[in-house]
Design a protein that fits this description.
By secondary structure, the protein is an all-alpha fold. The protein has 4 helices and no strands.
Length: about 150
C-alpha cells in the first residue's frame, strides 16, 4: 500500500509543479502580446491549467503527503521538507491571485518578473528532490519483485 500511495503522491507533485512551471510562462506570453496572449486562448488555458489541473494535483499531493508522514519519523529532514512545501503552496496561491488580477485587467509586473518567477518552482522542486534523496530510513527498503 505504501508503494502505491507514494507513486500517486509523486505523480500529483509532478502534475502540480508542471502547472507552476507553465503558468508564469503564460503570463510572459500575455505580457509580450504573443499569440498566446489572445484572451480567447489565454483565459481558458490559464484557468484550465490552474483550476482543473494544478489545484487538484496540489490538493492530492498534500493529502497523500500527509498520509506518508505517518511512515517516517519526524525530524529536521521532515520539517525542512514541509517548509519547502509551504513555499510551493504560497507560490501556488500567489499565482492564483495574480491570475484573478489579470482577469480583472490589473497587470503590475513586466515580462522579466514573470521569467524570474518561472524559475522559482524549479528551485523548489530540486530542493524537494534533494531532501527526498536525503530521507532517513523509515520503513526500510521495498520488497523485491517476484
Amino acid at each position: 500500500m505504501y508503494f502505491w500511495i507514494k507513486l500517486l503522491h509523486i505523480t500529483a507533485v509532478m502534475v502540480w509543479f508542471t502547472g507552476l512551471f507553465f503558468l508564469p510562462r503564460l503570463f510572459v506570453a500575455r505580457h509580450r502580446d504573443e499569440a498566446d496572449a489572445d484572451p480567447a486562448y489565454f483565459n481558458p488555458v490559464a484557468n484550465l491549467l490552474f483550476f482543473r489541473l494544478a489545484t487538484p494535483a496540489a490538493i492530492a499531493a498534500i493529502a497523500l503527503g500527509m498520509v506518508l508522514i505517518a511512515y517516517v519519523p519526524f525530524g529536521v529532514w521532515l520539517a525542512a521538507k514541509l517548509g519547502i512545501v509551504t513555499l510551493a503552496v504560497l507560490m501556488h496561491l500567489y499565482l492564483g491571485l495574480h491570475l484573478y488580477q489579470l482577469g480583472h485587467g490589473r497587470d503590475r509586473h513586466g515580462a522579466t518578473f514573470y521569467r524570474v518567477l518561472g524559475w522559482l518552482p524549479l528551485f523548489l522542486l530540486l530542493a524537494l528532490a534533494a531532501l527526498t534523496g536525503a530521507k532517513p530510513d523509515g520503513i526500510g527498503p521495498l520488497p523485491a519483485l517476484p
